[in-house]
Amino acid sequence: MTAAHSQRPEDSRAAPLRNPNFRLLMTYRIFTILSYQVVAVTVGWHIYEATRNPWMLGLVGLAEVLPYFCVAPFAGYLVDILPRRKLGAFAAACLAITPLLLVAITQGWWTSMGVAAIYAAIALTGCVRAFLGPVYNALFARVLPREQFVRGASLGSIVFQAGLVTGPAIGGFIVGWAGKSMAYGTAVVFALCAAIALLRLKVSEPAPQLQRAPIFASIAEGARFVFGHQVLLGALALDMFAVMFGGAISLAPAFIQEILHYGPEGLGILRGAPALGAVAVGIWLARHPLDRNAGRILLFAVAGFGLCMIGFGLSRLFWLSAFFLLLSGVFDGISVVTRSTIMQLATPDHMRGRVSSINGLFVGSSNEIGAFYAGSMARLLGLMPAVVLGGCVTMGVAAATAWRAPKLRRLHFSDLRAKPLESETKNPA
């Protein structure tokens, strides 16, 4: 049994941060995010410095997303059958290989492939990233009792958003102060710190299955589990469509110049506003965890997110636009914490890797697809109509989900806390 699982009943609602294993898991989470973000910022500068072609920057996301999609289903399967702690430490160590290769490229030790070598290194990151989320979600359920999942998900959201804000800032500062090689070297250190944190984690692993289904049958079992549930499928679909159609932040540079008429420093404010809102609501939810009417709150949060996008699209005042983005971060933070808690409470332990991988396929590329959608609509309709349309579609998705998924609409977390969901669709076998 884990230290968290062996607590006395009266201690079951203690703050998750009192649990040393949870603190180590959060250390793993923040250092993997920091490593990834430092590389992302530095490699963008690296590519543009080498090519002076903005289109080449777009290929960075493609070079990562395609391997991620190919590897994610198999990563979830491996997380469910291999020791999760060791697999996570190995994945974090592999995360350090990309910046090591990029250091070699920067120093001129590997130049025969030209810029293609940079994309090859980024493709490796896409493969490794497919393991990081499933490992985190699987270990999350091993270090905390179910009564603490809501608070733990809130704290995990805070750590995630903090990494998204501080990682690019650290990367940009180091590139400007000491150069690309030092920034890549810092990313190596962050990745190794994440690996060390998991190696120090003391957690029990699920008992190995005596008979394992073939790999593709096992992956299909995980997909059937997700697609057979109104609650789980509805929550994942809500998050995916909200990000996909409400991706106004990707158009922030154009809004700054063409509509808000603000200086370049305004871009950092607009970019940071959603994360600030998400961190603030994460802190609040960690102290006041949701339980009753969680499904309705999720639906209202997604609708509120869409309404904020409409407000942002119509605003012509910089600080009003920043306020709408701050408020959108609050609604998005509620959505992320609620969805994460549903996934943790609803998923049987032996399926956590596969379900988490499917979750990654739902939301892992939503930002990239959303940015493409927003840019395409802006080209066809103009900036303001594109963002307003995206907000309207997001609100429509929330309304359609409320109609088509009544179990999600009526959900209370106490309904899931007693035991994981049983599949609503039976296996043919």
CATH superfamily of the largest domain: MFS general substrate transporter like domains
Strand content: under 5%
Please state the average pLDDT score. Answer: 79
Helix content: over 70%
Query: What is the CATH architecture assignment of the largest domain?
Result: Up-down Bundle
State the secondary-structure class: mainly alpha
- Tally the beta strands: 0
Q: Overall 3D geometry?
A: globular
Uncertain parts: 1-13, 421-429
Number of structurally distinct domains: 2
| CATH topology call of the largest domain | Growth Hormone, Chain: A
Biggest sheet statistics: none
| First-residue to last-residue Cα separation | 33 Å
Please state the CA-atom Rg, rounded to the nearest Å.
Answer: 21 Å
Helix and strand sequence:
HHHHHHHHHHHHHHHHHH
Give the helix tally. Answer: 18
Oligomerization status of the protein chains: single chain
Verbal overview:
With 429 residues, this protein is mainly α. Helix content is 77%, strand content 0%. Helix 12 (294-314) packs antiparallel against helix 16 (383-404).
Main attributes of the structure:
single chain, mainly alpha, Growth Hormone, Chain: A, 2 domains, 18 helices, 77% helix, globular, disordered N terminus
